[in-house]
Design goal:
With 58 residues, the protein is mostly helical. The chain has one domain (10-58). It contains 2 helices and no strands. It starts with 12 loop residues before the first helix and ends in a 10-residue tail after the last helix. It holds the Pfam family rve_3. Residues 3-41 form the Integrase catalytic domain. This is Transposase.
Length: 58
């Protein structure tokens, strides 16, 4: 993660892309949000995609 790095933040573009991808993954899959009833954004999104959540017939 960025806060653990010393010296230059990124060595090259691939390093920057990997760091951003890791952050986004952590944010969406590992961090719970109080506004989402303490669920991750990914879990909330998956629940919204369920047919019953959308009030659609199966």
């Amino acid at each position: 993660m960025l806060e653990l790095r010393e010296g230059p933040v990124f060595t090259d573009l691939a390093d920057a892309q990997q760091s951003v991808a890791e952050y986004v993954d952590c944010y969406n899959h590992g961090r719970v949000h109080s506004s989402l009833e303490y669920q991750t954004p990914y879990r909330t999104h998956q629940q919204l995609l369920q047919p019953t959540a959308l009030n659609c017939p199966a």
